Amino acid sequence: xxxxxxxxxxxxxxxxxxxxxxxxxxxxxxxxxxxxxxxxxxxxxxxxxxxxxxxxxxxxxxxxxxxxxxxxxxxxxxxxxxxxxxxxxxxxxxxxxxxxxxxxxxxxxxxxxxxxxxxxxxxxxxxxxxxxxxxxxxxxxxxxxxxxxxxxx
Length: 153
Known about the structure:
Number of strands: 3
Order of helices and strands: HEEEHHH
Helix content: 25-40%
Largest sheet: 3 strands, antiparallel
Number of helices: 4
Shape: elongated
Radius of gyration: 30 Å
């Protein structure tokens, strides 16, 4: 099959393709594969302040979305360099990648919360207290005999 070497090379390049993105402050770094799967996560400790976990999670998700948004262009470049720019199958693959990994929105501003600031918990209420469990009762009607024993025998 003519060009199969090019497709083999493309397959090899795509299998090695990965994208790494970092948060603005460098505290979060993620790596995703060509299929968009998270393959690496680095969380750097901050000695002067500990952000709330929700802020860290938001940074991770933002980095993943930005990394995934770069995948279609990288796939397109790899395909153009290996099988040529006008291949219809390559165009379908890139179009599918653009649907699965749309361009990410600009990241929200991350404002670290200091230890002295309180983080409001919107809509949070403590759980209702549990009612105490009733004491166990040993009033079952089992008298210690097996089912097969008869009365008076």
